[in-house]
Amino acid sequence: MNNSSQDHIILPTAIVLVRDVSGGYRLGRALLDSCSQVNFITDELSQTLMLPRRKHNIEIQGIVKSSTNIKYTTSTNIKSQVTGFELPLTLCITSHIAYQPEPEIDTSSWDIPSNIVLADNQFYKSKKIDLLLGTESFFSLLSVGQIKLGDSLPILQITLLGWVVSGRYRASSNTLNTKCLLACEESIDSRLEKLWQIEEVTSKADMWTREQHSCEKLYNNTVTRSPNGRIVVKLPFKDDPACLGESYTTALRRFSAQERRLLRSPNLRTQYVEFMDEYERLGHMQVALSPNLNQPHYYIPHHCVLKPGSTTTKLRVVFDAFCQTTTQTSFNDIQMVGPIIQSELVVLLLQFRLHRFALTAEIVKMYRQVLVSEEHRMFQYILWRSSPNQEIQTFQLNTVTYGMVAKWHSNHKRFRGEHSVKDLISIPQ
Fold this sequence. Notes:
Elements: E1 5-10, E2 13-19, E3 25-32, E4 39-42, H1 43-48, E5 53-61, E6 67-79, E7 86-94, E8 131-133, H2 135-141, E9 142-148, E10 155-159, E11 162-172, H3 188-199, H4 210-222, E12 224-225, E13 231-233, H5 248-263, H6 266-281, E14 285-287, E15 302-306, E16 315-319, H7 345-351, E17 370-372, E18 381-384, E19 393-397, H8 407-412, H9 421-426
Parallel strand pairs: 3-8, 4-7, 13-17
Antiparallel strand pairs: 1-11, 2-3, 2-6, 4-8, 5-6, 6-7, 9-10, 10-11, 12-13, 14-19, 15-16, 18-19
């Protein structure tokens, strides 16, 4: 072996469309693994797609008899961006799928043909994996065709998802590569010790992460009140919004599909239009006059979800800030998530036992009582028209929006005392 280089292995990945609970599709990064007997999906993506989960205890065994217990499974479809091929899957829900090339692979000298479509055109970047497709799926996706890139380079394999890159390659030694492999078997004593630690009643001084502290600091430094008493917040960016790519085309395509669907369901369309008309009438959104598209901005796709069994609103409009732009980055990817600061559910339930009577109430449109700073409303553009006979217009959402991960930071804070429930009730809609 040449001491000036190091051998690495690339595993095949693909960007696929994953169906959510409403029938729409979102992008996810899948790892193709011919050695796995089951398919996996991360808990994060499963919750984003709002997929129904089923209890199903499965023990997953790996090397050196290591095991992991899976408690839930779910089902959905994946679809190829290249061929339109669709595959129904049952997936085990796990917290993490451990593979990503690190550090980023230098492919500048690789002669990848320009006339092929890669299944993952950023396979060389260190990004999280959302799904793992096991043996059954793996061989259903393979097609006939391979391209060898050269000596000490991986191969290209054609699949129904596009061309995947996989195999051994040799990198120069100036690429820092640190690996650590560990196998550990716990004794019964150590497990008992962990059980005792769980049972101990302890209080830790600080359980917040660095990001949560940054979110708290941003809140304290930027939250203000408007002249009429409304709370005004800024969006907590953790990355420069300039990293967002083009989002208008995707938003337009999804709006057109949603409009066609509503035209087939007159009752549903009436509720949707009424919801959006009220949104505009209350000042929670307005037409964006001459939006400056030369600055970073973001178009949020929206769709409706029926609420079975609801005694009030039968339909809810959902805004999808997880929708990726042309840079494979979504708006939610660049926002910080603040700490959860309300009491634990168990504590809230116990408080009901302290008094003979308990009252519950709901604050109407609570999230939408909080305004977003005008300088950040360009990241809350949507496309809308109430009738196909009208032109499609760009609107900006003026308030905290459903579907934003930052929503939890900007609203749970209200219950800490700085802005009470009374404040929210007294704010004019």
